[in-house]
């Protein structure tokens, strides 16, 4: 008789996964490991659950908006980003940075509410418990890495990050969201029962109550949001004391991320022989600044929306990119333009403008800002400005445009 070995394999795997592991010697139980080392009554499953829910929502919104920003900059074949509404990216990226910052006090309180478990005894009960603890370690590490690297980036403080910020922040985001989903899967029953059964408040005199703690954390998250939202919500700018950049500041009332001096383009942009080289299939034109100024001029009101979360609106005047595409002999309804800066190195010296943005009449090679010639730090003599696009793709000091039809 042949018997199916499956059920036995399954039960023995289960038995192995949940087999009790030998506890470590009791002599190790000292300091925070001793019984009763933590007895704050303010900690409870309910508090941890409420903080966990808030954090899960903030992290998910932050992850999705971050993914959008990443895909706009590195589009996979199936991803398309429209050129309208003009300020959509300003909103998604503002929300990305705001939810990340609001997560700081939430994560701090959440870690406080559970850190005594770091010293649980025995440290691991069985193999499944070991896996769960490893997952939590990965989640905490990835979450801290996301928040710290994000804050360092908006503060322009790159020295503590010996890796390329964008790649590190992107890949560890997947680790964080994966570990978060697994964590939610494991903890959901506990959260459910904690929310169903209201445990009576037992905070003794002198210690903070659960409601007081949640109120403080909520207020901290609110204050951080209010004190930074002004970097993109203009009416809140006066109270944006925590924001690294504020709308309306800088030359021509617009913040600058990289100066002409910093990019090493000062000589090239003021050279009398400056020409914008415009290349299409089988034809190249060299346009002097006077040639560009002689083409039909258009004025648009569009924001620079930096990935760092700040944004600021400007009134830009210049030549429509679609007119230049036509001049290069390509149908502007279905074309791509590769725009290069006079900046010779630097990660943001060139960008591809996809068909929806080439087509859009708001996309300009701008020559003026607020009616004046562009300030050198804003891209003199000519810069790209397109609707609904990350600031990092709004190339300054444009020297060359190469046009390609999509058919
Ligand atoms: N050539 C070049 N263009 C560039 C950059 C750069 O480093 N080099 N930085 C970009 C970034 S990150 C932003 S947010 C905008 C800022 O434009 P502004 O300095 O005029 O406000 O310029 C973009 N254009
Ligand atoms: Mo930027």
UniProtKB/TrEMBL annotation:
InterPro entries per the UniProt record, alphabetical: Mopterin_OxRdtase_euk, OxRdtase_Mopterin-bd_dom, OxRdtase_Mopterin-bd_sf
Keyword presence, Membrane: yes
SUPFAM superfamilies in the cross-refs: Oxidoreductase molybdopterin-binding domain
Name of the protein this chain belongs to: Molybdopterin-dependent oxidoreductase
Bilayer-crossing regions: 50-73, 93-115, 136-158, 170-191, 212-230
Keywords: Membrane, Transmembrane, Transmembrane helix
Domain (Oxidoreductase molybdopterin-binding) ranges: 273-404
Organism: Paractinoplanes ovalisporus
